[in-house]
Write a structure and sequence with these properties.
Strand content: 15-25%
Strand order of the largest sheet: 12-11-13-14-15
Oligomer: single chain
Shape: elongated
CATH topology of the largest domain: Rossmann fold
Distance between the termini: 35 Å
CATH architecture of the largest domain: 3-Layer(aba) Sandwich
Order of helices and strands: EEEEEEEEEEEHEHHHEHHEHEHH
Bound molecules: FE2/S2 (inorganic) cluster
Low-confidence stretches: none
Radius of gyration: 26 Å
Length: 362
Amino acid sequence: MAEAKWHRLGPVEQFVGRSLRQIEIGNLAIALTYRDGTFAAISGRCNHVGGPLGNGTLSDDGFVVCPWHSWQFHRLTGEARPGIPAAVPRHEVKIEDGSLWVDLTPATKRVHAPHPAHALSRPIQREPGPLRVVGIATSAMSRQFPRYSTSEAMLQLALDHAKERAAISKLIRLNDLSFKHCEGYYSKSAQACTWPCTITQMDPSDQLDQVYEAIVFWADVVLIATSIRWGAPSALYFKMIERMNCIQNQITIHDNVLIRNKVAGFIITGGQDNVQAVAGQMMLFFGELGFQFPQFPFVAHSRGWSAEDMENNVAQVQESRELHEGTKALADRCLAAAAQLVAAGAGCTSVPRGGRKAHRQP
Ligand code: FES
């Protein structure tokens, strides 16, 4: 049995005021609890991805609830809820001469419950074969009575054209998927935002895994189609990219670049204006993920600020030869750029934190 290393925390009365607190002693984190006149201590590092247990909450039945993703460990034993074979280390505490002491040597061991790895955590490797293009349509509409979406129609045109160029293509309509809004784990801590996405890992019914599979693993070219909504991309586009924070965050916290040798292009249509602002923010985000762009990375259609006759817009898009040719040309440019990147292989080097933030993570 390892030797005890008693550490004086301080006068007892200093610790009776709060039921749960996190205490850092060098590299050791302790979640100290006080309830019904007794102190107890367990590790302050959660089994999941290291969340600070002592900054969480204490349930009525004595479980310390992690503040990051709500895993739970009993304050007296360190054990997870019954049925989950996991535990964080427990530490002895004692009161001597009016002071509270904790034994830095854990009395029990950390036990990880066996968790099958999520499919999205597998190594990223491009499967051999022809170029692959995924189109993501982001327009929202009634599922029961879908309308004609000009951006989706142009996207389909681009995908069909890519097929004619011997690529494989597929369409994902965000409107057909059921997926949650980002729940803001990054706002708790960069480390709490995980890859695969925390929601994807915890909720098998969430369907954004189809988008992750397509853009991280499958596609060489990602074409995003959006309508313009009050000068911005569509609401579903934003719902999707908030959930993609986990891809970008891997660069920040692990220098883990998930997107390599891939090209993004954008199709933007709206009755009124602000194409530049929509394209600008889409390019910024996809650039931050690690995508490359062809020369002239978007095609757009807009009829100007005073065009309120939206009932004429669909016909104009359907009849616009220039827009159709421009859309096909965008697909060609994306395929040409992707062909070069794929031929070059994974030559891209890792740049700490994407090379764009001139400071270190604490
Ligand atoms: S639940 Fe504790 S780190 Fe995720």
